[in-house]
Amino acid sequence: MDKNRRVVTAGIALSLFFIAACVATDKIVYPEMVANSAAIPPIESAPVIEPRLDIDSFSFTRNIYIDRHLEDDCDNYNVALRACGSGSELAFHSIKRAQQSAAAGVLFLIRGGNYNEVLHVTTSGRADAYLGYSAYANEKVTLLDINSEDSGEEYGAIWLDQVSYVLINGIDVRGSIGFGRLLNAHYNIITNSEFNESTIWRNGRGKSKRGGLYVAFSHYNRIVNNRFYKGTDALALVHSNHNLVADNRMDLAGHDLWNIKCGSFNVIRNNLFSNKNQKLGSVFDCEKGSMSWHGNGEFAQQKERLNSTQYNMIDNNIFKDAQHYYSTSGGNGIQYAGQNGIIRRNVFYHVNAGIGMASYKSEATYNYGNRIYNNTFHDNWCAAIAIGTPINNMTDNEYRNNILWNNQGFAASHCKENNGVQILLRSNKSVGRFINNNIASSVDDDVLGIWGRSINHSLLSYYISIGLVEFIDTLEEDPLFVDQQENDYRLQASSPMIDSGAFLTTIISPTGSGNQLQLADVKYFYDGFSIPGEVGDSIQIQGQSETAIIVKIDYEKQAIILNKAMSWNQGDGIALQYNGSSPNLGAIQYKAH
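Above: the chain sequence. Below: its structure as tokens.
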């Protein structure tokens, strides 16, 4: 293949795109212009858990001890001796007994050991005074071989039962039917814990809701810096909004490592995912079975919730080592059917398809308005990206500044063949818009395939013959990773991906200055989603080195509010903070040493 070139379909795509736009409408309709200045929303304080837990930020006012070595409760506990009689601290000999003293501001310090009892929390803390359950110092606390029970059904060992402002820190679960359940539970934090070996983890889809950490009808929670190993669905967010899942490691699951179902404004960030048993992550709406499941308790509903998985962000994760499946219906990095979401800065390798843009009834019929950018896909078993056939709505999905390089390809009806295919379409009705991506293979130029067809296409031949998926300003080059054999996807100094990225969108506000500006497309950006402790994107305007932080996005007016004033020209490009003269392609931005 002739390297160091951009695919000539760029000109054809642009011409046909603007012809189609002119046929569809007489003019481009922009939102009503807004003022250049806006009030900056106040930043609410929140307990600090990243990059490490700051216990002082929780405003605890009293420590109470739980120690299974004790024969009875006492108020003269000696912490150093782990015994009653010569100290001054209140201590309980079981978790259950301790609950009588649960109150806002109390921090239960649990001494090391195996506890054959559940942690069922029914008391809330407050925003200014959490209720906490934490392993003492560096001691190992394990809830072992025990299940919670609710209405005759068994669930995981941790149960946050309609409570808010609770900290769970350093508490492990092992040998239970599942890891835990949060039901109508808000502003809680689970951190520094390990969830190991559900007793039903190999039972797969039929038991997938029960055998992990199940979060339902629960909002503004943070699940940070934990280890998940051998769940069914290791973590499920169901009908839950504004939650953060960050800095976790998840390995092996009977079905998904994690999923988001009919939840919005959630963030999956900085995690490591690996599952040789099946796929890694899923995002889709809720079928009736998801809503009516007994684990939803009094909140169970007898109706599906479709078109209801909006504005989630999947950012800066590693997806690796999934099952090598015969088709892109299994073993994917992400099986995705959400709306107006962001998938960015992720690395995908040794999974079946990096991203499967799914389309099937009924939970995956709305898959539109998504922005997929600056990801790296390499050496995946099938294609980098697979795109389904539209059912209800699959419009306005944009792929920008991604690197799709030397993924292994597929035959007409199975993912077991090595060829140049990087993008797999389910049919000739599949749609999407690819802008400024690197799509290339060292095998051949036929980088696009259609399921069930033995003849693959170069981007040019596809556009001439079918052309429903647009390809604009595509590169076809070796990205020159530092060491792709060792999965080091940093860019070498000579990489053609450096300074070759497109700006994410443009400024449509008239030339001026201020802290509020309107964009052609605000869907590429993140403002923190009102999640406690979260900060919006750091952005940079074309031709400037100064940066600012987005504190609020107005999706209706296509406007962003910044934390400080900046100047711009109408039509300037805007991107996340970058090094060099322009953004890079791929997940890892080049930094000169």
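Residues 207 and 370 are 30 Å apart (CA to CA).
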